[in-house]
Design a protein that fits this description.
Layout (H helix, E strand, L loop, with lengths): L2 E5 L4 H12 L3 E6 L6 H10 L5 E5 L13 E6 H6 L2 H16 L7 E6 L3 H6 L1 H4 L3 E5 L1 E3 L8 H6 L6 H7 L5 E3 H13 L4 E7 L5 H8 L20 E6 L4 H19 L3
Parallel strand pairs: 1-2, 1-4, 2-3, 4-5, 5-6, 6-9, 7-8, 9-10
Helix pairs in contact: 1-9
Length: 264
């Protein structure tokens, strides 16, 4: 059984990954803000906190998990930090970078990051040379933050959509469960630089999702720059969840949470 240290554990992609690892019988130390700070964190903690293989550590006290014994994998999601609230980004980035630079164990980290910042990661070769970097397209599904386009529209926050669209990667998308189903394979390949792409017959999965929304968002004809990521090996993920099915699950999840929040 492998031990995983995941940060930040209660954010979108990492939360789904934590559940995947716990379901597979792995031990997980999850680091994030204290759950009592915000309602959604409490709900997520209740979902995974009962698992005997899960333990929680406040992100600010990350040094208390050092040194880790036995085989340990560190998973740091820059993806979740960059896709989350801007006002929390700098503080969380500072902590993730501090964790990544910790080399007392002579162990590498698994870095999840959005395609948009791939160039920044390449520029930090000294720090990232030993790490496995996995670049992700737009990921959608339950718990997608409202700072991303699909969830913003589902929440009715269309006034923010232009600003969100200017930052979002629009060449590809993956439903989060489809990504999770392939994660073990990503860790088993020899390449340490992976660029995740959907295998969906050549179409643009992000645009297909956009057209399924209740209030279809304007699809820009501009091409996203992949920053010359020639050093990254494409890793194709089979699309098993259609845009219509995936967005319905995301919407149903949002409506369920709204009902719980309004419970008398």
């Amino acid at each position: 059984m492998t031990k995983f240290i995941i940060a930040p554990v209660f954010q979108f992609v990492n939360f789904h990954l934590c559940k995947k690892l716990l379901d597979a019988g792995h031990e997980v130390i999850g680091m994030d803000d204290t759950p009592e700070r915000e309602g959604s964190l409490q709900e997520k903690y209740l979902e995974i906190g009962r698992n005997g293989n899960f333990s929680f550590q406040n992100l600010e006290d990350w040094q208390e998990v050092w040194p880790a014994e036995g085989k340990t994998e560190f998973i740091l999601s820059y993806y979740d930090v960059y896709k989350g609230p801007i006002e929390e980004r700098d503080a969380r980035l500072e902590v993730l970078k501090a964790i990544q630079q910790e080399r007392s164990l002579q162990q590498s980290a698994i870095i999840l990051a959005p395609v948009e910042i791939g160039e920044d990661l390449i520029c930090n070769k000294d720090r990232n040379n030993a790490d496995r970097i996995i670049l992700l397209p737009t990921i959608y599904g339950p718990w997608q933050p409202g700072t991303m386009a699909f969830q913003s529209v589902l929440e009715g926050e269309t006034k923010k959509i232009d600003a969100i669209m200017s930052e979002e990667y629009k060449k590809d998308a993956l439903y989060v469960d489809d990504l999770m189903s392939c994660f073990p394979n990503m860790l088993s390949v020899s390449e340490k630089r992976l660029l995740v792409k959907s295998r969906n017959g050549g179409g643009n999965h992000w645009e297909e999702c956009a057209r399924e929304l209740i209030e279809p968002i304007r699809i820009s004809a501009e091409k996203d720059d992949e920053h010359g990521l020639s050093s990254f090996t494409p890793f194709l993920v089979q699309v098993q969840t259609s845009p219509k099915e995936g967005l319905k699950k995301q919407l149903d999840h949002f409506k369920r949470r709204q009902r719980l929040m309004n419970w008398p």
